[in-house]
Every structure is written in structure tokens, then in C-alpha cells.
Amino acid sequence: MNYQEKTHTLLLSVTLIIALSPIGSLAATLHAIIVGDTTDPNIGQSVQIDVDHLNTLVENIHKYTGMTLSNQVIQGKELTKEAVKTAVADLSVASEDAVIFYFSGHGYRHSDTHSPWPYLFMPPCEALAFSQIILELKAKKPRFLLAISDSCNSVLDNFPAPMIEFIEEDEELVAKSYQKLFLDYQGHITASAARPGEISYGFSVPQIGGLFTHTFLTALDNSLSSSEPNWEQIMEQSGSPINVRQVWPQAPTHYQCPQYQFKLLEQAKQPIIVNTLDSPSECHQWNQPVPSCTKGGK
Question: Does 293 fall in a domain?
């Protein structure tokens, strides 16, 4: 199995932010901005898998919630810093609308970076702060915001991430599950594929891609097929340490450790608050050093 490192200058961190609000209108619009560095010589194949998976996800949200879909895909030669800035700035959002921003590509941080979120590399040699994108999207006050960066988040060298198939055998169950997860909650979820200073993996095989993206979408898919879907279970499953060797047996002994926090309110229930950012990571005692590389990685 081939693997790649998703770093640019280093760091594969997947950052996920969900801002959920009260029950959404079925007449609302789902605005999606999907960004992928699909022509990168090292991680392009893995990124293309991620982009395809996210397109599948937004199509399914549209299908099962009834929201109108407005989907912008920025990839390949169209990917520039200005193209992404313009897409975010020009987004016109109504109070009942939902927004999904997704990035797959190289990411990095500086040793003095205070934000837990990475800088997103934009060809040919520029970057955008993911934290700034989050602030701009929040300022538009959508009912629901999901922002994900599947990129490196360390000052070392790193690796890329995978894909899933959505269950369709019980259309009524799946539709109700989508509606509960994407219309019935309010609050926020933030997550990254790797803790600061750590690496994240990705694989350029058909059913994989970014390892955290794959793990998150698999947990989401499992929840969608259940009678009681909930974000707490999804994040617990996708936020647990990932044994890389279960996907790639030839990998050096390594666990990928995501981090996440959320504060959510489901209708007529008590708030759920979880924060793993300050909890100790077992990765430090499990992992062996990973050789550094001069290029590659998210």
C-alpha cells in the first residue's frame, strides 16, 4: 500500500469546526466550499479522494435534509490564495442557512504559533490561517457551520488521509438521521487530526485518503445507520487514537492522536461539554520517532 506525507512544511492536522443552531428550515441553503490541492505531486491522489468523499457528503446532506445545495469546489490549477479568500468573502448567508468549509492539502505551523489550528498552504507558495477563515465564516452567522482542515499541524514532516460509502438501504432511517444531526443540534465542535507537534497520515488508495477524514466519515456513517445518531458518539469514535498499522501494516509503529472539543445542545436536553485539548496524549509513549523528509506530507 502506498502512503504519503501530508505536510507542506510540516503538519497534518485536520481541523473540524461545527457550529450548530436550532432546528433548521428544510428551505434553507447548504453552502459548501470544498478546497483540495489535487495537483500536488506528493499528496494529490490522496487529496482527490478526500474531495470526492466530501462531495458525496454534501450531496447526501442535500438529499436527506431537503436543503438547497450551493457547492463550490476549488481544486487543481484553480486553487490559489485569492480564490479561497474570494469564495469565503463572497458567501452570502441567511440566518437559516448552513455552511461547510473543507480543506485537504498541506498545512504547517510555526514554533511560536499560538492558535491550535494550522496555516493552509496555497500554491504556488502562499498560505491562509485556518483560524481566520473560521472567524470570517462565524461572522456571517450561519445556523450551522462545519469547518474542516485535513492538513498537517506540526513543525515536523507528516503524512496524508481516506473515504467511505454511505448506507442507503433504509432511506427513511438515513434521512431522519441526517436531519437530527444537521438540523436538531446547536453549539459547536472543533477538532484536528493531530495534536500540536504531531503528524497525521493519508493513503492514496481508492477507499482511503486522509486518515482522520476517513475515520470521521466512517464514524458519521455508522451513526447515520443507527436509530439514535448523536455527535458525542461520533466524536468519541473519530477522536480516539488511531493505530496506523491497522491501515498500513508496513508503517512505523505509530498512533495518530486527534484532538477535539465541543459544546452541544440537543432539543430539550442538557448541554454536552467535552474538551480533550488539555488531556494528556498517550501518543508520546506509544510512538517511535518518524524519519523526517525534505518534501511531502500534508
Answer: no
Task: Classify residue 78: in a domain, yes or no.
Answer: yes
Is residue 99 within 8 A of residue 87, CB to CB? The reply is no
Three-state SS sequence of 233-251:
HHHHHHCCCEEHHHCCCCC
Q: What residues does 43 pair with on adjacent strands?
A: none
What single string gives the DSSP state of each residue in 79-129?
Answer: --HHHHHHHHHT----TT-EEEEEEES-EE--TT--SSSPEEEETTTEEEE
Instruction: Give residue 101's domain range.
Output: 3-286
pLDDT tens for residues 232-248? 899 888 888 888 877 77
Give the number of domains in the chain. Answer: 1
| Residue 58: per-residue pLDDT | 96
pLDDT in tens, 47-91: 999 999 999 999 999 999 999 999 999 999 999 999 999 999 999
Confidence (pLDDT) at 258:
85
Ramachandran assignment for 296, one of left (phi > 0), alpha (psi -120 to 50 degrees), beta (any other): left
Q: What is the separation of C-alpha 156 from the centre of its chain, rounded to a whole number of angstroms?
A: 20
Helices 211-224 and 171-183 pack at an angle, to 10 degrees, of: 120
Q: What angle do CA 60, 234, 96 make, to 5 degrees?
A: 50
Cell of 257: 492522536
Q: Which residue has the higher pLDDT, 97 or 267?
A: 97
| Per-residue confidence (pLDDT) for residue 34, from 0 to 100 | 98
